[in-house]
Structures are given as structure tokens and as C-alpha cells.
Amino acid sequence: MDELMKHLSKIGQFMAGLGGLAIFVQVGVAIYNQFRESHRPDNVEKSKSKRKLRISSIGMVVALVVLIVGGGFIFASWGYKRGVQIVISTYPSVEGTPGPNSTADISGRVLGLNGPENYRIVLYVKSDRWYVQPSTEQNLTYLGPSGQWSAQTHFGREYAVAVVKPSFDPPTDDLPSAGPGVVAIERFPAKH
């Protein structure tokens, strides 16, 4: 049931984003149509003053800019960061010896994130289930200023990397869902 609620929450967030986008598009089209109508030759001739026409044109351009900038801030406040990409450059192969005492390096970079040092990475490995890495006590990995990160992990069949806000409290035995506190999450199979 919890898994179903997580999926429904993701769908709801996506639909809210689409609804907000539709509203901005409709308002933008209305402003464009009004601008186009006021600049038709027969309306320009009927106008008492070209100055009034210029002022209304400037007003419409300002309104359009405010609409675009405002829309960007709204989508950013929703955590809508579709441009964030997680890249793993080094991670273990499936040939590693599993066990609590065997670890290997894992590293990578996060692209498309403003101020990456203000975020953290949560690493997971999957063997019989998902485990937070490198341990439950040390579950957040720092990002460098250019988005680079590195840590130790145990061997497994699959790896997952989540970009999170520093206040995020990651689950220790399952993957988090995209949503509040989680900017992006990617899964990677072990190398063969």
C-alpha cells in the first residue's frame, strides 16, 4: 500500500506541474493575442495616440516577462529539477566478494545542479534488499563544488544514488521516492 501511495504521489506531482504549465501557456497566449490585436493596422489607425499604443506594448512585454520569470520560480519551488543528471564513474563489479568486511570505491558527479555543495548523496546497494551505504550511521555523502563525490560501498547486484537536501533522513533498508527532500535518484546495475 505504501508503494502504491508513493507512485500516486509521483503522478500527482507530475500532473500538478503540467496543470501549472498549462495555466502559464494559456495566459501567455492571451497576452500574445491581445498584443497582436492591438497592433493590427486598422486598430493602429483608430488609436488616438501612438504613445498609448507604445505604453500598452511595453506593459504587455513586462507582463510576459513577469509571467515567464514567475513560472520559473514556481516550478523551482516545487522542486521540479528535471535537468539534474547523476553519473557514476567508478563502481564495483559483480565479481567482488560480498560481505560486511569487503568494500570498494564508488564515485561520480552530479550535473545540472545549482550549488551542489548544498546537497548530499545517499548511496544504496542491493543484494537481498537495499542497504544504505557506507553504513546506517554514515548515510550522507558530501558533494564538492563541481558536483563530484566519492565513498566506499559494499558489493551488490545493483547500486542507487539519490541527490537529497542535507536535512533529508534517508530510509536505511529501501530506496527513497522522488519527492520532498529528494532531488533526483538513479539506479545502476553492477558492472559485469
Count of runs of 4 or more consecutive helical residues: 3
Mind telling me the CATH class of the largest domain?
Answer: Mainly Beta
Shape: elongated
Describe the sheet with the most strands. 5 strands, antiparallel
Approximate helicity band: 25-40%
Q: CATH topology of the largest domain, anyone? A: Immunoglobulin-like
Mean pLDDT value: 74
Number of strands: 8
Multimerization status = single chain
Task: Describe what you observe in this structure.
- It contains three helices and eight strands, in the order H-H-H-E-E-E-E-E-E-E-E.
- A hairpin with a 3-residue loop joins strand 3 and strand 4 (130-133).
- The chain starts with a helix and ends with a strand.
- The longest helix has 37 residues, at 2-38.
- The protein is an alpha+beta fold and 192 residues long.
- 37% of the residues lie in helices and 26% in strands.
- It has two domains: 2-77; 85-189, Immunoglobulin-like (Sandwich).
- Residues 1-9 and 73-81 have low confidence and may be disordered.
